[in-house]
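FAQ: What does a multi-protein file look like?

Like this. Sequence, then tokens, then the next protein.
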Amino acid sequence: GMKSILNEPSPPSSKVLKAVDKLGRRATVSDLAAATGLSLSEAQDNLSTLASLTAGTLEVSSEGTIVYSFDKGYRGTLSARSGKRRLQEQFEKVKPVLFYITKVSFGIALLSSIALIFTAIIVIQSSSSRDDRDDRRGG
């Protein structure tokens, strides 16, 4: 689950999304290249990425060209995924700090419990030796 979100490609730029919208959410590689000024390979990469992130479909036109088709809610799907991705990236940044704090607090808890046990032993020993002295004095 979590790792797959981070391994996802970055979503296409807003320029690409606007062009896809203008093209009626149906675009070929050459349509997108013409509309955005991207190279054909960049247009291909952007459409493939967008299709994989938003479950877009690929159709073959009568001329044999591949047409990428996106449903009405594709932008919502994209922003939901990028939101999850942002959260995951934030967590990845914070994780080492949290791990360090956990280790340090565990160490402090361990040391303070050892100190508490030693203190308790010393108190018990000193009170029992006082009792012994009292017994000797009294007897």
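And here is the next protein:
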Amino acid sequence: GDVNMALEREVGDKVVRMEWQLTSPFNPDMEGEGEEGIDHEATDFCVTVENKSKGSGMAFYCSTQTGEDHRYVIGNVKAYASAEEKDSVSSYNGPEFEDIDDKLQEVLDEYLAEIGMNNEVCDFIDASALDK
């Protein structure tokens, strides 16, 4: 079956897409350890915000994390001018998020919140990633 999942919605003239992959609940390293060894795994996901007419946009490569306050971390941010550039294997995936200016980090984080990225979405991503 297909292991790719996505949520998509339109916000003005942009398409917001959140994509992640399902993971197997079976871990061969856990055999015989019982339930106490199960730890919550982070789920990698990508949020793209794309201009419907131009195909340009930004991609945020993220991971969920446990906790009450902020349920995800941003790893990289990539800007692209076209679908070809977005899908190019050799294109630059952008800087490490923690390496960019603090103010820009704040603005990008607020932008993700504005387009719908929140703890409930992270809970859904984590729950559905393991629910196979």
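Q: Is there any per-entry metadata?
A: Some entries carry free-text notes. For the entry above: The chain is about 25% helix and 30% strand.
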